[in-house]
Hints:
CATH architecture: 3-Layer(aba) Sandwich
Largest sheet: 8 strands, mixed
CATH topology: Rossmann fold
CATH class: Alpha Beta
Distance between the termini: 15 Å
Shape: globular
CATH superfamily: Class I glutamine amidotransferase (GATase) domain
Structural class: alpha/beta
Amino acid sequence: MLTAIIDYESGNLHSAHKAFERMARETDAGDVIVTADADVVARADRLVLPGDGAFPACMAALKGAGGLYDAMVEVVEGQGRPFLGICVGMQLMASLGREYTDTPGLGWVEGDVTRITPADASLKVPHMGWNDLVIDHPHPVFEGIKTGDHTYFVHSYHMAVANPAQRLAHVDYAGDVTAIIGRDTMLGMQFHPEKSQATGLRLIANFLNWKP
């Protein structure tokens, strides 16, 4: 089995690659590679889309990255292979991003990416640091994970999901902040699982061994 981490020059690939490679090795989940080659993406068994930066810039970079966008869409939409978006990679799954300017997303999970607005004005944005997951709906990716397990966030925007059933988990930051989304063979994590110690590594392993 081949897991491809998509390199479109908009993600922290080194730490993600190390974490996914480690968990693939420990769980006998095949090979993990970082690639900017659309042909490799097209034949991968599962895809990971990281993302750091602003929504419009990341979407433009993905669409301008030598066929990666079209190959990814065909693998996920056309062939139904497992997909995981991380941080802005998750946000790109939305219908619309509202960071700086309204930008269409992939439309895989209906909803808008909006700025976090904590009810407590003393809380800073970006939301940065550890926060406890609250699991909203069961999913195989939560095997060995429970409400209260914590993950590491760095973001100013999050996805306001139109269908509550597609928000799998959230965190409390003086208001609900979407943490994990999912539909069909698609998953998204707003936090960085590769930086989230034992909880993040377990989530990565669960994704790598998930058989939708």
